[in-house]
Amino acid sequence: MLRITRMIGGLALAMALTSLGSGIADAQTTMPSGGEGSDPGRGMLEVALSGGKVSIDYGRPEMKGRDMLAMAPAGFVWRFGSNKSTTFTTEGDLMFGDATLAAGSYSAWIKHVDGDSWSLIFNSEVGIWGAPGASRENDVLEVPFMYSVENEMIERLTVRFLENEGQHYLAVGWGTHRLLVGFSAK
């Protein structure tokens, strides 16, 4: 597994995280319409990049008075959503800093490294339900999130693809926690 530690500027983080709750600055995304067969407890979105589409399918748990991320101990790896593991699919290779994520489908996991340090893990196993989760030996890439705590409360886990000055971001909000990582087509 490859780990990277590249971070982006604070201004981009502030802009993207401020827009997470309101949906401002969303890249081209599609969300489930709530039509027949859709699950309100799941979110699906995609963004078109020069190398093809990138999509994410994730469970959307509610806070219900809990603060699950605040309770996560250092080293805890969470399946990033609820029920079936989050699936991250890319039609083309992606760059996260200097590291490449090859085209394909992955389960996505969030790791509480320590304190305010969080990371996004891509694992080659997909469609995993519940605990104990994916085998860590199948982790393909681990990238650091930028993290902040905001005043606005987001009750249901929300993921967005954002774009700022040609850079794409995966933004995650739940409760007052905000996580952000930049990526681009290779």
Question: Mind explaining what this structure looks like?
Answer:
This protein has 186 residues and is mostly beta strands. The chain has one domain (2-33, 43-185). It contains two helices and twelve strands; from the N terminus they run E-H-E-E-H-E-E-E-E-E-E-E-E-E. Strands 1, 2, 3, 4, 5, 8, 9 and 10 form an eight-stranded mixed β-sheet that branches. A four-stranded antiparallel β-sheet has the order 7-6-12-11. Strand 8 (104-114) and strand 9 form a beta hairpin. The longest helix is centred in the first third of the chain and has 11 residues, at 10-20. The protein is globular, with a radius of gyration of 15 Å. It starts with a strand and ends with a strand.
Give keywords.
186 residues; mainly beta; 4-stranded antiparallel sheet; 2 helices; 50% strand; globular; disordered N terminus
Helix content: under 10%
How many beta-strand runs? 12
Largest sheet, strands/sense/barrel: 8 strands, mixed
Rg calculated over all Cα atoms: 15 Å
Strand content: over 45%
Count of the domains: 1
Which residue ranges are poorly predicted, with pLDDT under 50 across at least 5 consecutive positions? 2-16, 21-37
Gross geometry: globular
Q: End-to-end span in angstroms?
A: 19 Å
Mean pLDDT: 82
The tally of helices reads 2
**SSE pattern, N- to C-terminal:** EHEEHEEEEEEEEE
Structural class: mainly beta
Summarize the helices and strands and which ones pair or pack:
Elements: E1 2-3, H1 10-20, E2 42-49, E3 52-59, H2 68-71, E4 77-78, E5 86-90, E6 94-96, E7 99-101, E8 104-114, E9 117-123, E10 139-144, E11 146-164, E12 167-185
Parallel strand pairs: 1-10
Antiparallel strand pairs: 2-3, 3-5, 4-8, 5-8, 6-7, 6-12, 8-9, 9-10, 11-12
